[in-house]
User: Fold this.
Amino acid sequence: MSSFNALLEGFASALTLNNLLFGLIGTILGTLVGVLPGIGPALAIALLLPITYSVSPASALIMFAAIYYGAMYGGSTTSILLNTPGESGSVITALEGHQMAKRGRAGSALATAAIGSFIAGTIATAILAFTAPSLAEWAFKVTAADFFALMLIAFTTVGTLLGNSMLRGMASLGVGLVIGLVGSDLQSGAVRLTFGNLHAIDGIETVTVIVSLFALGEALYIAGRAKATGWSIIPMKGKAIMTRQDFKRSWRPWLRGTVIGFPLGVVPAGGSEVPTFLSYAAEKSLSKNKDEFGKGAIEGVAGPEAANNANAAGALVPLLALGLPTSATAAVILVALQTYNIQPGPMLFSTNPEIVWTLIASLFIGNTLLLALNLPLVRVWAKLLNIPRPYLFSGITAFALMGAYVVNNAIFDLWIALGVGVIGFTFRRFGVPITPLIIGVILGPMAELQMRRALQISGGEFSALYATSMSKILYVILFVVIIGPLVWNFKKKLDIKK
Amino acid sequence: MKSKKIGGELAFAGSLLILGLVVLYDTSKMLVPPGSGTVGPQVFPYLVSGFVIFISIALFIQIFRGNLGVPEGTEFGEVVEKTDFKSLAMVAGSMLTYPLLIERAGFIIATSVVFFGVAYAYGAKNLLKNLLISIIFSFIVYFSFSKGLNVSLPAGILGVFE
Assistant:
């Protein structure tokens, strides 16, 4: 029960009046930014990072946890009240949620999303609290070679599971790995890809890459490639409450969504698309009201929303215990923790246990604050959707540029930001997914470190990379992950020919 | 029409190939400090460059076989076939002023300019209203960050008023 005591201590350090105030501000800002169309959780967190720079670590953590959950909740509000034809993460919630809103049931949809997110988030955070420490302990036995194999799997799954084309996912990953190379090599001091620029020796800031890839890339892409058709906002009528009937139909999907979402966050499955889709499919096949699906079935909102939140908490398990981000959002969190000088990984639980437990307690608190705040305020959030498009994009662009600048107060970072913005435009134009690039930037240097450690021990013998039994198992999994989709596609083609 | 489409795709795969070759060249010319150990700073970049070059060649093959990318959808209406270079250039141009102005003219002016430019490109017709919103936005952001949150932002030429 030592985890439990540690968690209580985490609550004690997180629950001061001052920290609660920061949590409240975080919830409001997170939701505010998350609600804005075109801003997903990863970008929302990245844009709000500068706010946490000047506060103390404990306050920053709780504020940050609140931003995290707030941004996710804000995103679901957008997909329910607004028709979202494109963005992949919110597509599933929009399927049924938007239909419900059209039929005047926006309040129920928003309520089931909020309560479902809360329940799933709380259960998942509790599982996180009790599994992450044992995973971290186990991770001490994991060798450098095993870590390297694990990272190769993360690269491959993130690269292949996102977007329509495996090759394009890999292209995105490759560009990310190159960006991660820039700067001086930490082990030898050799300078790579700086072309004589002194600023580049420190490497390229990950925050800059994330912010400009999402925000500047999107602003350029919409300006150049999308015709304004406007969007239809469903006016919010009544309160965000659920009837008894809604509850009866929602609680099972909430729990099922949690069960589907959490494990798929722990393993590198490339973010929330797969679990939300699976949850939707499960609810559709289990529902007694199958004919309602596609016309606004509440199960289709409750399940995926719960899966989404449980997935996000699940992603924190490998992040905290192994230092391994498995989605764009987890990558942003890693960067955020690093700006507070917290390096996630097995060491964290033994060297800075108070920080881990404050963070986990903060997640509970943030989640609760969100539920208390959001249902009464939902009409205020809905108003945000009325911000005219030109000013929305101006604001996003201005904040992104500011975010890129304030990391180091360096103009060099701004030039990098513009360059990355162009990459973001190009990727969208040619259907190349963005997340693999971010994972490449962050995991690339870590993978190199582990590879060199493993090879150093063996004296340069490459067979050391697959010498342990765990690494052998991981390479088999890697093989299946690469070959599986190819075989599946080939079989589909054969079936079509028949 | 079709050949033009492939042109863009080929340029994309080509830039990827060039990127891989640049990494390869840079790594081969790298000054390796003595005592870098058995596995020096060159091994991983070589692997990365090989990976990028391999992917770019595979992309070329895929493109020639007619397997083209699907442009990303957005939350903001229909994606169009032809790029609107005028709005694109206006947005890109506004962004470009920011690094030039932020330290010379200060945060408030740089932010007002980029805000105004992007809003204009996105179709904010009323210039006076746009200008007012730009300036008010920049002031609010500047004061809430620099005074409220102690994030240091360059005051620039407006610093004399403080």
The CA atoms of residues 28 and 42 of chain B lie 8 Å apart. Chain B touches chain A through 86 residues (CB under 8 Å).
